[in-house]
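Record 1 of the preview.
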Amino acid sequence: MSETIITGTISKPQLQEDITLTAKAAEQIKKIKLENNIPESHGLRVGVKGGGCSGLSYVLGFDAEARPNDKTFAIHGITVFIDPKSLFFLSGTELDFQDGLNGKGFVFNNPNAQKTCGCGSSFSA
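->
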């Protein structure tokens, strides 16, 4: 009788620290910047704050520069700023833009959200 010995290491799942933007979301962000005369050099701030019917609400805005400790990403020509607290709740999130029959707006596809509200603008982790 022969034995098979398997060697190696077991790796833990890697935390997806980045957030992503779909091409459609990036297109809409560029359009909003242009329509509101926001300088090209400004980046998109993505974050969370306490509130909403599920506990945390998503926040989008524009900033001229990163704050200390921000993580900065460049996605589809958009600079994205995110603070460490928000990154904890948004790791692996995809920001999309939808303009279909069910409404128009940004959609957060957040794998960390355990419960979301009906409108999709708040969640709990």
